[in-house]
Amino acid sequence: MSELPLDALIRGICDDDYSGLIIEGKPPTDELKNCWLDLYDEYIEKIQDDDGRYIAERVKQRNLMLTQIQVVESIVSYVEYLLSASIHMDLSGLADKLTVWIGMPVQLDWNDKDLSISQLEMCMGYARSWYSTAENIKTEIGLATTEAGLKKMDRDYFDNLIIAISMTMNFKVNRKETTAGEFVVMVRTMRKMQEDLKDFSKN
To answer: What are phi and psi of 103, to 5 degrees?
Structure first.
């Protein structure tokens, strides 16, 4: 994060654009996303307070759950296609993948389509329950954000934060030249200055 341009961080958070992480070549999408998640976690850990870290963790849990749902639904749809199109193939590998994602044994047998369909329905039942949980987390995140007085990290959020830093510290923040690590230091310094000013005004 110490070398990541602030502009790349903002595009990653606001636009899901991770191209700013690429140094050369065309890295696999999964590798790029995992790299981004590590950087995002580091940024949140350094810039947020306890309430912010809790909310960030719940957002991460929800995102992982949605990924889990998407993977299970994709595998189930593929197996259903194979069965309906009478495309004969060994289903044990797909059953193993579902077992990992579901967290319990899944049996798929080409010669026993009734069993396979029943198992696929069970997997989709889990997926539906996860979706319900993910929606509950989404509601919780919204309530917690409101109660904690936190703001969504969109472009307006960063624009206002950059303006506040510029006014408080008397210099203009350049998004392309400033790194994400430097930005974190600026934000924490500004908050410390604001807290000191509040304490001084009380005395």
So the answer is: 90, 15
